[in-house]
Design brief:
With 829 residues, the chain is mainly alpha-helical. 69% of the residues lie in helices and 6% in strands. It starts with a helix and ends with a helix.
Length: 829
């Protein structure tokens, strides 16, 4: 009978072990039964009843007790099979307890063992019940979180629909504004042409008036026409020579422009400076033309003033000549010599008469002599007047001759200016037509030729024209991150043809966690550690695309990275970075991982040429991560540009910058370090056996899903880890001695980096150590500071040891940095 009961208990135990429990409790009656059995066993150890006399009675008592015990075990087994919520064991009566006291010692021992088994079973049932309760609570929390996410997704879907409608309305408005702007632009061009033609008409009218006046002057001064013609011919010859030289110079400039355009296509990096030179030459030419036109106007005004002066002098000369003619009429046509001869004769006559007067006292002679003296005085006065008139006439004649010479010079200058004006007007008309033709031809072209091609390209076009072999690879989802990190290590090793890349599994795990943390990565280390190779190999291993950009020394702004817009040619010169950003948003690449590699990133200062990207990557809403390409909307802009002038920084793009630290490079600023995931790659000393893997393409969406799942799964554990760090002694030491604290950005990045690193197979302590070493203890922040003493470094080490005391690993990266800095200070460096 006891064997049968043991078999029943064994079956109950096996059924309990196999049954998945939800909720299980033991009733108070069952525990009473167990306590009564134990007390009975203890009581019978000291009381030995006669076996022969009480055999039947003991057997019946044992049978009754075991029947109730079996009923309790049976109810327990039925509970296991039926998944009930409680087990009720039967109560023991006093007479049954007394009968159990009389059982033989052997049966009592067997009963004690059975009761011990029952207590073990009850304990396991209780443990299973508690575990089931915990799982039920976890399931309820997950269901609640899932419902919240579903509600959030619904809200986001509604917002996306609203934004789509608003975008369509804005596109319609933009098209209307584009048409109105085009009409206004055509009207402005028409007005400008009318203004130019109006100025030319005024110049032609003024020149025609001058021609009429010149004809009138030539009719009056025919005697100097031959000289004027000769001077004009000479001026024409000089002007022809100047025009020929100017045409040769223009031809030379045109040849230079063609050469510059060819050189621009070959050396795109030097085009910007050449464009500035060309604009400067054009401005100088226009300025010189304006100066020449102003000079011509001034010369024209001077000619007009001189002509008026000549007219005035000519009129005064005419009046004087008229007076001279009247004087000649008074003199009866006699010449000045005749008058002088007559005067001399009169003088001689007077002398004779005086002599006669002296010899004769005759009164009549005296009277005649007096009359002759009066006549002499009158004729002498008239002669003086004639001399004065003659001198005035000679002076006037000299002035007239000078006026005619000035007039000849002015005539020659005017004719030369007139010829220059005609040549320049013809040249300006030709340039205007050329500019109009170029403008019309360029307006019909697309300002972004490469990005416009991407809009219309299919997958087959990418594979055929751009050799995009990655698009022909089979697509698959990212597996479990721990498995994916190992697989990625082998895929990276065989990604490059002709070379095997041996990166440690720890480095691959850090890379995967860094991808979840930030879109900006900095790979640093000594030359030859594979910084550039790792970025390129990762893109090939996951079936993505890597845009390789060699950073040049002297980069200052976004134009050096993205390109610039030429307003004269109506074209945007698209650099590789701009094409890489746009490629990542196309249908062929929007679900692929895209890398933009900035090789030798710190040859120039990233805080200058990469400033707008640093600001855009900090924005929480990915829709606000925009980079302006132009101040106004560009015509015929590609479809994926926002407002026809801004490029979006897509979420499936990671910027990877490689950095060396020597005398030719610049140090990164804190703002760059704080926003980036920094990896220091060591030398590859040990290799491993590479497992051949077929090429495949992993989707970006599945990778992000794995990241989010890892963050959700390990969020509580990471929160506790960060709480232990921030509440420990390290926080107060950093604050008091280094004036440093834990920022929100570091906490936000750690909440994504550490969980993903754990899911990839790493320990949470090692992930935290990497963040502290690259973000807090890096050179210039804690280590490498002139104001930090050895005691400060020792205090940091002690605090780190205290924080890591109960964890599984050591902060080897942080300790190595602190030890190196302490040795440097001990050497006095």
């Amino acid at each position: 009978m006891l064997a049968t009961k043991k078999l029943g208990i064994q079956v109950a135990k096996e059924s309990i072990e196999k049954k998945p429990w939800n909720t299980l409790t033991l009733s108070s009656n069952g525990f009473k039964f167990l306590r009564a059995g134990i007390e009975m066993a203890k009581h019978n150890k000291g009381n030995k009843a006669p076996v022969a006399q009480n055999a039947n009675t003991a057997q019946s008592a044992v049978a009754s007790a075991w029947q109730k015990a079996t009923a309790g075990i049976g109810s327990l087994a039925s509970l296991v099979q039926g998944d009930a919520s409680a087990v009720a064991l039967p109560d023991l009566e006093k007479d049954q307890v007394s009968e159990l006291d009389k059982v033989e010692p052997e049966k009592k021992l067997e009963l004690e063992r059975l009761l011990a088994d029952i207590s073990d079973v009850a304990k396991r049932v209780r443990d299973l019940h508690e575990d089931a309760q915990k799982r039920t609570e976890d399931l309820a929390r997950k269901e609640e979180a899932f419902s919240r996410r579903s509600d959030e997704n619904k809200k986001r879907t509604e917002e996306i629909h609203k934004l789509d409608e608003e975008l369509k309305q804005r596109q319609v408005e933009i098209k209307k504004s584009e048409s109105s702007l085009a009409d206004k632009e055509r009207e402005l061009e028409k007005r400008e042409l009318d203004a130019r033609s109006g100025f030319a008409a005024q110049n032609v009218a003024a020149l025609s008036e001058l021609k009429k006046e010149i004809v009138e002057l030539e009719s009056k001064k025919t005697e100097i026409q031959l000289g004027i013609l000769q001077a004009e011919q000479k001026a024409l010859d000089d002007e022809s020579a100047r025009a020929l030289a100017l045409m040769e110079r223009e031809a030379e400039i045109a040849n230079k422009e063609r050469g510059l355009q060819q050189q621009q296509r070959r050396l795109d990096a030097e085009w910007k400076e050449l464009e500035r030179e060309r604009a400067q030459i054009r401005e100088d030419a226009l300025r010189e033309a304006e100066q020449e036109i102003a000079g011509w106007k001034t010369a024209h005004q001077r000619a007009r003033d001189s002509r008026q002066k000549v007219y005035d002098e000519l009129e005064s000369t005419r009046q004087e000549i008229e007076q001279f003619r009247e004087l000649s009429e008074v003199l009866a046509g006699r010449s000045a010599r005749e008058i002088l001869d007559e005067l001399a004769a009169h003088k001689r006559r007077v002398t004779q008469l005086e002599n006669q007067l002296a010899s004769s006292e005759d009164d009549q002679l005296r009277a005649e002599n007096e009359a002759l003296r009066k006549l002499r005085d009158e004729q002498k006065a008239q002669l003086d007047e004639v001399h004065l008139d003659l001198a005035d006439a000679k002076a006037q004649l000299h002035r007239l001759r000078l006026g005619v010479s000035d007039k000849e010079n002015l005539e020659r200058e005017k004719r030369a200016l007139e010829k220059n004006n005609q040549i320049l007007s013809a040249r300006l008309n030709d340039l205007g037509k050329t500019v109009d033709d170029l403008t019309q031809s360029q307006q019909s072209e697309k300002p972004f030729p490469q990005m416009a091609w991407m809009d219309s390209a299919s997958t087959a076009d990418w594979i055929k024209d751009r050799k995009a072999k990655e698009l022909s690879l089979p697509e698959q989802d990212v597996p479990d991150l721990k498995k994916f990190s190992v697989e990625l290590q082998h895929r990276i090793a065989q990604a490059e043809e002709g070379a095997t890349l041996h990166f440690r599994l720890e480095d691959i795990q850090l890379l995967i966690a860094g991808l979840a943390m930030s879109q900006l990565h900095i790979f640093q280390g000594i030359s030859g550690t594979g910084k550039t190779s790792l970025a390129k190999a990762f893109a090939k291993a996951v079936g993505g695309h890597c845009t390789d950009i060699a950073v040049q020394a002297g980069w200052r702004d976004r134009d050096d990275l993205l390109g610039h817009y030429n307003a004269f040619e109506k074209r945007f010169y698209e650099r590789d970075c701009l094409q890489g950003l746009y490629r990542a948003q196309t249908a062929a690449y929007k679900d692929r991982c895209n890398i933009i590699l900035l090789d030798e990133m710190n040859l120039s200062r990233p805080e200058q040429y990469f400033a707008e990207f640093l600001s855009a990557l900090e924005k929480n809403d990915p829709r606000d991560r925009l980079i302006s390409l132009s101040e106004s909307q560009l015509p015929n802009a590609p479809a994926l540009l926002v407002e026809g002038r801004r490029i979006r920084v897509p979420h499936n793009v990671w910027f990877v910058g490689t950095a060396n630290h020597d005398e030719t490079t610049n140090e990164f600023a804190d703002k760059t370090y704080d926003r980036a995931h920094v990896m220091t790659l060591p030398r590859h000393e040990a290799g491993f056996k590479v497992e051949p893997k077929p090429k495949a393409s992993f989707s970006y969406g599945s990778l992000i899903e794995r990241f989010d799942a890892a963050v959700t799964q390990n969020a509580d554990e990471v929160s506790e880890l960060l709480a232990e760090l921030t509440t420990g002694p390290l926080t107060s030491i950093l604050q008091d001695r280094f004036d440093l604290g834990w920022g929100n950005r570091l906490e936000r990045q750690a909440m994504r980096f550490v969980p993903v690193y754990m899911a990839a197979g790493g320990r949470k302590e090692d992930a935290l150590d990497h963040l502290l070493a690259s973000r807090v203890f890096r050179r210039g922040k804690v280590t490498g500071r002139y104001d930090a003493t050895i005691d400060d470094l020792n205090a940091i080490e002690q605090a780190l040891t205290t924080v890591w005391k109960g964890w599984k690993s050591e902060p080897r990266r942080s300790m190595a940095l602190l030890a190196e800095d302490r040795r440097r200070k001990e050497r006095g460096a």
